[in-house]
UniProtKB/TrEMBL annotation:
Pfam families: HTH_28. InterPro entries: InsJ-like_HTH, Trp_repressor/repl_initiator, WH-like_DNA-bd_sf. It comes from Staphylococcus schleiferi. This is Transposase. Residues 2-49 form the Insertion element IS150 protein InsJ-like helix-turn-helix domain. One of its GO terms (molecular function) is sequence-specific DNA binding.
Amino acid sequence: MKVVNDYINGLGGYSAIGKRHGINRSIVRKWYHAYIAFGIEGLERKKGRTSIYE
């Protein structure tokens, strides 16, 4: 959630936030759009996948 919060709070663009957290900018974008579309549930762990919470 920290990654998404950083983006929402204007602490950088996808690239800057991705670099800060050690992830690809496309992941930041994906998580942000999942949060906008589905809220916190859009970021919850899915069976067989790794959690995206930080």
